[in-house]
Amino acid sequence: MAQRALLVNELKQLLKERGITYSAVARKLKLSHASVKRLFSRGDFSLQRVDEICELAGVELTDLTERMREREAPVWKLTLEQERQIVSDPRLLLVAWLVLNKWRFEDIVKFYRFTEREALGYLIKLDRLKLIELQPGNRVRLRVSRNLSWRPGGPMQRFVHHVLLKEFFAWDFSDARAEFCFYAAEMSDAVMAQARRALQNALKECMEQSEHDMALPIAQRTGSVCVLAFRPLQFSAFDEFRR
Question: In this structure, which of 106, 134, 137, 184 has its CB flanked by the most CB atoms within 10 Å?
Answer without folding.
Answer: 134
